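Need tokens for this chain, all 83 residues.
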Amino acid sequence: MKLNKKELEILENISEGNSDTHQLKIFTNFDLNKILEIIIKLEKLKLIDLVKKQDKSYNEEYWDAKITSSGKEELRKLFKDSR
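Here are the structure tokens for all 83 residues:
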């Protein structure tokens, strides 16, 4: 599977616990639309699972992502290949 640099950066951030769209925006400096595009693609590839959540303080919805076992395996392969 081939991921581009931005997709890989998002997947790495999710694996490190920066899993919601607000955190991903801060840690990657990507715009929200690009983040949403990438996480939807990663979910379709079964690398992450997405859950829609509600921030009660700000009364807004956001997405929270969790890396799947397939996503962890993909990261292991990518890092192994880069050595």
